[in-house]
Amino acid sequence: MKVLITGGAGFVGARLARTLLARGTLAGHAIDSLVLADHAAAPADLQADACVQARIGPLLAQCDGLRDEAFDAVFHLASAVSGECEADFELGLRSNLDSTRALLDALRHRAERGAAPTRLVFSSSVAVFGPDPAVPLPAIVADDTLPAPQTSYGTHKLICEHLVADYTRKGYLDGRAARLMTVTVRPGRPNGAASSFFSGIIREPLAGQEAVLPVAADVMHPVSSPQRTVEGLIAVYEASREAFVGRTALNLPALNVTVQQMLDALEAVAGPHVRARVRPQRDERIAGIVANWPRAASAKRAAALGLRAEANFEDIIRQYIADSAATPGALKGLQT
Amino acid sequence: MKVLITGGAGFVGARLARTLLARGTLAGHAIDSLVLADHAAAPADLQADACVQARIGPLLAQCDGLRDEAFDAVFHLASAVSGECEADFELGLRSNLDSTRALLDALRHRAERGAAPTRLVFSSSVAVFGPDPAVPLPAIVADDTLPAPQTSYGTHKLICEHLVADYTRKGYLDGRAARLMTVTVRPGRPNGAASSFFSGIIREPLAGQEAVLPVAADVMHPVSSPQRTVEGLIAVYEASREAFVGRTALNLPALNVTVQQMLDALEAVAGPHVRARVRPQRDERIAGIVANWPRAASAKRAAALGLRAEANFEDIIRQYIADSAATPGALKGLQT
Fold first, then answer.
1. Hey, where are the domains in chain B?
2. Cα–Cα distance between B154 and B220 in angstroms, integer?
3. N vs C: which end of chain A shows fewer Cβ within 10 Å?
4. Contact between B110 and B164 (Cβ < 8 Å)
5. DSSP-assigned letter for residue B258
6. Which of B100, B162, B248, B301 should one mutate to test binding to chain A, selecting the residue with the greatest count of A CBs within 10 A?
7. What is the homologous superfamily of the domain A2-180+225-251 according to CATH?
8. Looking at beta carbons, which pairs linking A87-93 to residues 24 or more positions away fall under 8 Å?
9. Cα torsion for A85, B91, B180, B234, to the nearest 10°?
């Protein structure tokens, strides 16, 4: 089978690609070809795989060509991130809204000419939940909590959920939308996102660097490891159409964890000298943004597909340590 | 002030135009100019008004020109109807999604160059509510009921609600979205819409013609008169920004009425000989569609703006009779 991953060179996309190549199959079919569409070049290990074809350039410019190309599976992960969309409104419209529309229309074009509806998984986000300033969020955001996005990123994700649902209802696609939780621990450097510290307070101390904690330790947040996130996307792909009934969007499982629990887990896994590198220094801007985010999420529909969150944050840290073994400097803070 | 009504030649749009001209003011400002953008020609009485400028053609083609034209108020009513969008998917995308986006971008373009955000009322619809096949609708759909549209029309209305909200949050607009209930009694001829009979069972008997009732008499549905609908749109325009808090969409008030109550009202207002022209003849297709529609709606946020539904269906029939006095044949069924 032939698989397309948009955003296939990104953090989640590349991990999904590696996981699919390691499995060799998807929904019981052998994967012959894996196309990674991304504005950036794919990591070298993926480019070296004979099954992989990397296509570099904006997704929007690639979509017309997709009208004449048959894919058995599409994972649509390409997206500008939240902070970028707030800073550049047109970038958000183009990257997150117009690109998705163009991709869906390319797949529709094929279905209108008699092809079977392509199965597509769209990566939505917990950012679809507000909060509505008029109505406080429930303690736990569920699959059927009323979305009231307060960022362009969350707005476009929600809009695309509904486009995927409508194209699916019309028979142009077999679409599903999975709302990703905050994926942590992300490798690499801090980025400008307000959520950056959720990875930074683990990643930097493990690398021997100081990390600033800009919020109170009792802040709670729904997180997921990269691997559970990828497993969730695959399970959503492999689920039957019937499992989705009429709705196409579901929450992926979350570990609802406080910052204090994250720090305790860091100490348990890596020792008090690593934990000591986290320095509390309140940042009112970031604390204010985070105060409006969901503190917890449930995932009843994903649970019905057999998906579970990690049992504890220690496991998430151990996953990051195992993943980072080959990265120079990433774990030098572990040495005492 | 200068006012734009998209869909200004349509049933609701033309009535809104007449109401605004009769008032002469909007939010305390004198109306100097009223532009009606529509693919059809405006009614003759409106064309004859010195304040009115009719612009005929697709809205999508008109939007580029709007980038350099200042409006104080926009009522965005232009829309392909539900049945059209189900029959022609691209028409729905173009007329209801792309046109709204182009209109919002024209207004954003002005704001980005320093103009004050234009106040805009978007006519959304009770069709944003599903039902989600997986989750039955609540007995009454409220402002904050989870929308799960099951038509392209409802999907596009919901998407545009969220675009209006996000452009407003960013300061490009002062946007509000009002969800219209089923507007009845519509004049003219039956159309292909499944909801057509809600007007037909009143309009046809009053004109001396037989009307077919395709559903059971215990079907309940949220309706509103044309005049209350227009008053709702104006009140939503005139409300303060603060009245909307972060959310921009609200339900307009509905009279939740059964078909039996509609027929009883027809008999009370027009007599048993008129009522007798309604012939029950079940249509499984229409009954099936209607069975999935909301049976009732509440409008708490609109009530806070002082808006109320009609007290009874008799008043809606009397409004139609008063409106139709000058229409040849419309009321000939009243004669005994």
1. 2-181+224-251, 194-221+254-297+308-334
2. 20
3. C
4. no
5. E
6. B162
7. NAD(P)-binding Rossmann-like Domain (3.40.50.720)
8. A89/A152, A89/B108, A89/B170, A89/B172, A92/A152, A92/A153, A92/A156, A93/A152, A93/A156
9. 70
Inform me whether the C-beta atom of residue A163 falls under 8 Å from chain B C-beta atoms: yes
Which one of A144, A158, A246 has the shortest CB-CB distance to B162? A158
CATH class of B2-181+224-251: alpha beta
Q: Report domain A196-221+254-296+310-334's class.
A: alpha beta
Q: In chain B, which residues have their Cβ closer than 8 Å to the Cβ of A153?
A: none
Sheet holding B182-183, edge to edge: B182-183, B220-224, B255-258
User: What CATH class does B194-221+254-297+308-334 carry?
Assistant: alpha beta
CA distance A270 to A226: 20
Q: Three-state SS for B255?
A: strand
**Cross-chain residue pair A166–B148, CB shorter than 8 Å:** no
Q: How far apart are the CA of B134 and the nearest CA of chain A, in angstroms?
A: 6
- ipTM of the shown complex: 0.95
pLDDT tens per residue across all 336 residues of chain B: 999 999 999 999 999 999 999 999 999 999 999 999 999 999 999 999 999 999 999 999 999 999 999 999 999 999 998 888 989 999 999 999 999 999 999 999 999 999 999 999 999 999 999 776 667 788 899 999 999 998 999 999 999 999 999 999 999 999 999 999 999 999 998 877 788 999 999 999 999 999 999 999 999 999 999 999 999 999 999 999 888 766 679 999 999 999 999 999 999 999 999 999 999 999 998 898 888 889 999 999 999 999 999 999 999 999 999 999 999 999 999 986
